[in-house]
Amino acid sequence: MSIxxxxxxxxxxxxxxxxxPALGATVDGCPPGVPVDAAMIQHWLDKRKPGQNKYTTQxxxxxxxxxxxxxxxxxxxxxxxxLMIENTDQRSKDYGDIKDKFRPGHADITYFQKYGVRDxxxxxxxxxxxxxxxxxxxxxxxxxxxxxxxxxxxxxxMVQMGPHKIDRDAFxxxxxxxxxxxxxxxxxxxxxxxxxxxxxxxGSSVGAIIEVVARGVPAGLGAPVYGKLDTDLAxxxxxxxxxxxxxxxxxxxxxxxxxxxxxxxxFAPPASEDIVEIFFKGxxxxxxxxxxxxxxxxxxxxRWFKVKDLFHFTETEGGMTLQVARKALNKRMIANGGLxxxxxxxxxxxxxxxxxxxxxxxxxxxxxxxxxxxxxxSILTTRKTITKTGEETExxxxxxxxxxxxxxxxxxxxxxxxxxxxxxxxxHRGQVGENRGTIGPDA
Length: 443
Known about the structure:
Structural class: alpha+beta
Largest sheet: 5 strands, antiparallel
Shape: globular
Number of helices: 8
Strand order of the largest sheet: 1-2-3-7-4
Distance between the termini: 50 Å
Radius of gyration: 25 Å
């Protein structure tokens, strides 16, 4: 039996081949009422689509997504969401010379050994083209996360290309979208451009390491022993085409540390970092560079006030609930709102060797995942192989291929992170609702 689905409650099934008429994803379990349209999902597909620069395959695909079901009047209905992306720039003739040969390092041979048939046109289902479906599903997951936990931010970037690593001391979040490699190091981006250009012109390829970080993830996601958050994250990243290794947090390097160095020490947060929840009847929120609360009587400007350190807000029919830093609470807020409820801030940690997960459950720290992508197997260098009849021969792969497929793996890793996190948010909500264990003097 072929397994083309992943997820528990938020379940994604991808379908289609590299050179077929279309590919896509069927997403079941998306909560109803999530605002979404094709443009929201297209934003993420545009990060992944081929042919955007000379460092990726020159196959020209618009990767325009169509929502065929599960969305009505701009929101999800709770029924399966069908996403479709048409293939428009296939060149199957490029693969005619290899239809009876197996590419070394490629899944050609194992697909044939298992099924007795294979789609040689671009690798069929084993092509990295399949990942467009994942990115579309991830775009939907991001919109659902935004509705459930808007503080969550998911960012992927490349930390190594071949033997070349980034300088962690030069890490700059703002640099990630300023270069074609999604690298947070301006100097590395310049150096890698020259390095990869040389490989590209020679017809060769190289691997990469991608890091994906999820910030703002609440504590409590995941479950022991077989429902661990890191188990599902590792499986999700490992399922990406061409991925050969996955690490969570310190990963393999944890084996070189002592217990004193590896364990992230825990500290209580100062009271000033506590979060205050306060309800304002009939109010609405405006953003004009800063946030302004307009209470029920909008003409009474004396009752308007600005909000600093806003964490989250929830609009309801009767008004709105704000979550702000305790230090931002002031008399005007109390005079206009209801009784403030103090919610203690999360514990602090000395470091994050665990990658935001302990015992399979999120700690509230950043979740950090890395995965290694092998070099593209389709290269212009002559390689030895065999045919389907067992004859020894040589092979050169023509066509349009990524010199470093790790570049376009960045948005794919982000998408898989989003799908897994949403799935575990729904599982957590279904089992315990909100976290039950409180830490602090009132516990």
